[in-house]
Design brief:
The chain is an alpha/beta fold and 238 residues long. Helix content is 38%, strand content 22%. Bound molecules: S-adenosylmethionine. The site of S-adenosylmethionine has 17 residues, from strand 2 and helix 6. GO terms for molecular function: rRNA (guanine-N7-)-methyltransferase activity.
Length: 238
């Protein structure tokens, strides 16, 4: 089996006691990530312990939001190698998780992970967030939209908030520049129907990294003009 001790110990520090089956699933996920990463570019992080800290522990730190009880419909926007959506579904198999990404080759990898691990209630969707957020089957149908390492908060809010039902949450997983990002995104969040509720700082075990979760509540519907197409959420953030 792949080396997993840093993840197992770190998860305990985050309050998660992993079962043997869950550890085996994360181990298979790590093996596939390393294998596929030799053929297609999924992640720059390939060292066993670094995967444990920067991908697995960082992903499961999303449970510190206190918003994922286990039955939510969740979209992971710009999921890349499946972070945080796959770890969420491994540990809470009753959540319904949609993994969205604009790069199809990464979704092929994710479909193999889903098959090998035998995950249920999880699917992949290929497309740009700003296009799918206008489609009826996705728009305002999720309890939670979550996203890590995809765009700055003003752009990311336009990608994510349209997916969230009124009363639901957008969880932005952010790094040290979050205060500056919040300042630049306040207007956008309000226009899109969101309201910043809480910021939770999370020191990642076995590292000196502090990440944070920004919890943004959807307090009213997103106006139909958003998200804008043509790359505007990124080129001209609200
Ligand atoms: C740096 S990776 C992060 C992946 C993963 N969330 C993580 O934390 O490891 C960013 C991912 O977001 C995707 N992405 C960026 N903009 C997007 C958009 N507008 N719509 C869909 N996917 C997007 C990219 O294809 C890429 O896979």
């Amino acid at each position: 089996m792949t080396k997993m001790d840093v993840f197992i110990d770190g998860a305990k520090e985050l309050g998660l006691d992993l079962s043997d089956r869950e550890i085996e699933m994360f181990s298979d996920y790590k093996r596939l990530l390393k294998e596929w990463n030799e053929k297609i570019n999924i992640t720059a992080i390939t060292d066993d312990d670094e995967i444990d800290i920067k991908h697995f522990l960082d992903s499961v730190s999303v449970f510190k939001s206190g918003l994922i009880g286990g039955n939510e419909r969740i979209i992971d926007v710009g999921t890349g190698g499946g972070f945080p959506g796959i770890p969420v579904n491994i540990l809470k198999p009753d959540t319904e998780v949609v993994l969205l990404d604009g790069l199809n080759k990464r979704l092929k990898f994710l479909n193999e992970v889903i098959d090998t691990l035998g995950l249920k209630n999880i699917s992949t969707v290929h497309g740009r967030a700003e296009e799918l957020g206008r489609k009826k089957e996705y728009r305002e149908t999720f309890d939670i939209a979550v996203s890590r390492a995809v765009a700055s908060l003003n752009t990311l809010s336009e990608y994510c908030l349209p997916f969230v039902k009124v009363g639901g949450y957008f969880i932005a997983m952010k790094g040290p520049d979050v205060d500056e990002e919040i300042e630049q995104a306040e207007k956008a969040i309000e226009k899109l129907g969101g309201q910043i509720e809480k910021r939770i700082d999370i020191p990642l075990p076995s590292s000196d990294i502090v990440h944070n979760l920004l919890l943004i509540k959807k307090v009213k519907g997103t106006p139909s003009v958003y998200p804008r197409g043509g790359g505007n959420p990124k080129k001209k953030p609200l």
